[in-house]
Amino acid sequence: MPMEVSTKDCSSIGDAELADIADFAIARGTGFDLGFLSKQRDEWVLCTEVRRDGQVVGFALYTLERIGGTPCILIGIGATQEGPDERMLLNEILAEQYRKALLAFPDEDVLVGVRVPSYLGYHVFDGLEDIVPRLDHKPSGEERAWARRLAKKFGVESKLDDRTSVVSSGGEVTGLFAYGDLNLGPQGDLAPLFAGVDRSKFDSLVVFGWAMAEQLADGSLPPEDF
């Protein structure tokens, strides 16, 4: 079935629409109930939704802003429906964000920041440069500072270990982008990065990377070779 993708200001999300998102998010295992989403609606600027046959199958709340002069896409929370076309759902959301970033920040490299629960979340960063954290790389002082800046924007600064980028939520739902199996734990090639992430306590990893200006301009993000 064809998908419908729409983007609007978070302030224009009605209660019924928010309830639809909450139903999807809870079924997805995120812990994002209606009360949590009501608060997040006030925290973020834009909402991209993907629907199939009228049903929510993906969403993201995010903002485009400058942090210390650096243009950023900050993805506060979101989720995509598990299944064979989940990557397509993710790319629909990312494509909207990149198009808006190109309009807001023409001819500039843009930092993309998000919290992910497992290595599958790194698909958000396909095609991006200088991703942190990454294997066999010790974050510089400036990169650790970026992790702290992002954690502050996400409202989890006190829960962040900037040496590992792990957000220890202690069982509190604090937000992330849900892609793939949320209960994988430290598996796959990126397992060392998630060694300190306890999904039973809603932990996550703060990750960021750079969308290059030329990639945004030529529309090559997100990459379609999947």
User: H/E order of the elements?
Assistant: EHHEEEHEEHEEEEH
What's the story with the biggest beta sheet?
A: 10 strands, mixed
Rounded to the nearest angstrom, the distance between the terminal CA atoms is: 20 Å
Would you tell me the structural class of the helices and strands? alpha+beta
Number of strands: 10
Residues in helices, as a percent range: 25-40%
Just name the CATH architecture. 3-Layer(aba) Sandwich
Write down the domain tally.
1
Strand content: 25-35%
- Total number of helical segments? 5
SSE blueprint:
Blueprint: E1 3-9, H1 15-27, H2 34-43, E2 46-52, E3 55-67, E4 70-80, H3 86-104, E5 110-116, E6 129-132, H4 141-154, E7 160-161, E8 166-167, E9 177-178, E10 204-211, H5 213-218
Parallel strand pairs: 4-5, 4-9
Antiparallel strand pairs: 1-2, 2-3, 3-4, 5-10, 6-10, 7-8, 8-10
Written overview of the protein:
With 226 residues, this protein is α+β, with helices and mostly antiparallel strands. It has a single domain (3-218), classed as 3-Layer(aba) Sandwich (Aminopeptidase), CATH 3.40.630. 27% of the residues lie in helices and 28% in strands. It contains five helices and ten strands. Strands 1, 2, 3, 4, 5, 6, 7, 8, 9 and 10 form a ten-stranded mixed sheet that branches. Strand 3 and strand 4 form a beta hairpin. The chain is globular. The relative contact order is 0.17. The mean pLDDT is 96.
Compose a concise summary of this entry:
With 226 residues, the chain is α+β, with helices and mostly antiparallel strands. Strand 7 and strand 8 form a beta hairpin.
